[in-house]
Amino acid sequence: YSAAESPVQGVGLFRTELCFLDRSVEPSAEEQADIYAQVLEPFAGSGHVVVRTLDAGSDKPVAFATLEDEENPALGVRGLRLALGNPGLLHRQLDGIAEAARRTGAETWVMAPMVATLAEAEDFCSQVRERGLRAGVMVEVPSVALLADRFLDVVDFLSIGTNDLTQYLLAVDRNNRQVASLYNSYHPAVLHAILHVVEQAHEEGVPVSVCGEMAGEVGSALLLMAMGVNALSMNASNLLKVKAAVRQVKASFTRQLLNEVLAMDNGEVIAAYVDLQLDKAGLGELLRNRKALV
Ligand code: PEP
Ligand code: MG
Known about the structure:
- By secondary structure, this protein is α/β, with parallel strands linked by helices.
- The chain is built from twelve helices and seven strands.
- It has helices at 29-40, 80-85, 87-104, 118-129, 142-146, 148-151, 162-170, 188-203, 218-227, 236-248, 251-262, 267-288; strands at residues 11-15, 48-52, 107-112, 134-139, 157-160, 208-210, 231-232.
- The protein has a seven-stranded parallel β-sheet.
- Helix 4 (118-129) links the parallel strand 3 (107-112) and strand 4 (134-139).
- The radius of gyration is 19 Å and the shape is globular.
- The chain starts with 10 loop residues before the first strand and ends in a 6-residue tail after the last helix.
- It binds phosphoenolpyruvate and magnesium ion.
């Protein structure tokens, strides 16, 4: 596989926990470095790779980082909370990532999942920078979206995780079928929260990307572009479709569409309106073979 032959420009979200879901013993820093290097290697010299530290807990149980039973794991010890509570775990992972970056020469950015406070972000980012890498946090918890401007002094970049941000803004478990119909990333609260983060980041010249499912779905990807998001990270299976859509519509069209939907109050109406407008603009074919939002 050669990244040079691919339409992929870097990796926007390397979910490291997927390498370790079934491990009952934590891999050493050296073993982690070998694994990360395999992912980084093809991108040496082209784009950059955003490595997310272990997002264990809640819907992603990792055997070696097993937790006590929790009544409400989505609001419990997960993501960065787990890492900061087990400093050795985080040190070993960051050492492994730094070693893989050094070995491959790939430009490596490191970000933390499930950040809720500025103190957590400061602690994490200083540990990443000590190792000579760029540091950022995910915007998944509403506290970070609301106070985005304060995080900008601390981070080199932000990445909005719209899957969890939607879940936490709307108080809807994204994996609970009973409330699935309430889970809607077009909800105006979600759109306005994203816009707020992007506007704040741009005032400070900090790059902001989106790495949730919204980035891989044609209608929402176009809205995100219109908001000025710097990079969209998606599954390879959505890449060509989204690229085709971006090329097919004018920026003035998506800006107008964004302005219209920002004034609306109902997420389902917004989703239907976006579909209708894109259909009219000749993107019906690209819309119809879309993947459902999470
Ligand atoms: C997200 O929450 O949007 C995200 C990208 O993280 P994950 O889907 O892995 O929780
Ligand atoms: Mg998430």
